Amino acid sequence: MPTDLIKVIQSREVEVAKDPERLRREAVSYLGQIKQHKSDPAKIYLLIDPLSSSSVLVEFKTADILYAENYNTLSDAQGGSVQLIQLWVKKGAVGLRLVPFVVEDFSRYYDHLD
Fold first, then answer.
1. pLDDT, tens only, 55-93
2. Which candidate, 29, 32, 34, 31, places its Cα nearest to that of 1?
3. Contact at 8 Å (CB) between 44 and 32?
């Protein structure tokens, strides 16, 4: 699926890729593993540093992506591999950094701080 998604993105703004300086002026590059949002095809997830335990998950609108290309394939010690994608996201676009957390009730903890 990432390759198909890349083709869709590339078909919109192919002329941007022909001018690397234009990409640098108009966009910021992000590198990671992409996946299309399941319920909203107008959004994608990008897992930055996918083989690390401290990966960062971000979300972008596909309309804000000026260009995408296959970058490299990473392999881990267990034989798994991940396709890295380089995304060029329009400057000024809003992305979301998704941070997971465990839902807990900390109200009793704060009572002990006095």
1. 999 999 999 998 888 888 888 778 878 899 999 999 999
2. 34
3. no
Do 73 and 31 form a contact (C-beta atoms < 8 A)?
A: no
Contact 5, 36 (CB under 8 A): yes
- Which residues, 6 or more positions from 51, have their beta carbon under 8 angstroms from its beta carbon? 74, 76, 82
How far from the centroid of its chain's Cα atoms is residue 84's Cα? 10
User: What is the full DSSP assignment across the chain?
Assistant: -HHHHHHHHHHHSHHHHT-HHHHHHHEEEEEEEEEE-SS-TTEEEEEESTTSTT-EEEEEEGGGEEEEEEEEEEE-TTS-EEEEEEEEEETT---EEE--------HHHHHTT-
- Residue 67: Cβ within 10 Å count: 24
Write the CB contacts of 104 (distance below 8 Å, at least 6 apart in sequence).
none
- For residue 44, the model assigns a pLDDT of 93
Amino acid making up residue 32: G
